Amino acid sequence: MWEAQSGDGAMHQCLFSFLVLIATCTGVEASCIDPGTLVHSTVSITRKFSEGDRNAEPGTLGIRGTAWFLSPRLMVTAAHVVDAMRLSAQDWKEIEIRERETKWSIFTRIFRLAGFQAEKIAVLELGSAFPGAGALPIRTEPLVPEERVISVAYPNNRLRFAEGRFVEFGADARFGGAALLEMHDGNDRLVIDHGASGAAVVDCAGRVVAVVSTAITQTINLLSPPVRVSTAWQSPNVVAIPIQALSESIRSD
């Protein structure tokens, strides 16, 4: 359900979270923005399915991801998150927004989708302005190799900070045009994990340069149970959508 196996044994996966009916259901350099200043810009978003929705997909209670504010009335996430949440451009649907330990219920709908590749950026319109939203600016210039980047996300519905670097733009069939990043929190290379889809990736000035889409992992089957691990150091482990897809869409209006 989670991962698509590739030929070389590596896997990439959508990072929204399924809420199922089983089981449970370090600092950056001084030249970079402090990620703690970005916490009011980013939230966890959850859509809990009604009984009718659950009948269409048995065992799934809902979908969770990460979003960030373009304005108090507009939020940005990855398109596969809104697809999985079954949001639409016509109907207002209720979602839960969580900022750290505080939760709100709010109605939302799709305002626009941006991008020309398989994975797109989704902008959500909120039924009312979100209190205290910290809007993030967008950078129009593309990333350059080895540039430092930072992300604030809600993997597993928990606020986490990640830092790392931009490696390159993907050139093959799997990742063509995507921003390939190496992200970590100290030695934790799975800091960007389930629930982090849609998180903003920002440069050292705090401008959004990409939106988290997937993680690149591999599963070790020699152990019981199998263990999912990140890629090796000095290689990309996060796939993101360049923000230029959204900035070009805004300029065309």
How would you characterize this protein structure?
Helix content is 8%, strand content 43%. It folds into 2 domains: 9-19 and 137-248, Beta Barrel (Thrombin, subunit H), CATH 2.40.10.10; 39-135, Thrombin, subunit H (Beta Barrel), CATH 2.40.10. The chain has a 6-stranded antiparallel beta barrel with strand order 10-11-12-16-14-13. A 6-stranded antiparallel beta barrel has the order 4-5-6-9-8-7. The protein is mainly beta and 253 residues long.
Helix and strand layout, with pairings?
Blueprint: E1 3-5, E2 10-14, E3 17-20, E4 42-48, H1 51-56, E5 60-71, E6 74-78, H2 79-85, E7 93-99, E8 102-114, E9 121-126, E10 148-153, E11 160-169, E12 179-184, E13 200-202, E14 208-220, E15 227-230, E16 238-242, H3 244-251
Antiparallel strand pairs: 1-2, 2-14, 3-5, 4-5, 4-7, 5-6, 6-9, 7-8, 8-9, 10-11, 10-13, 11-12, 12-16, 13-14, 14-15, 14-16
Question: Can you give me a brief rundown of this structure?
Answer:
With 253 residues, the chain is mostly beta strands. 8% of the residues lie in helices and 43% in strands.
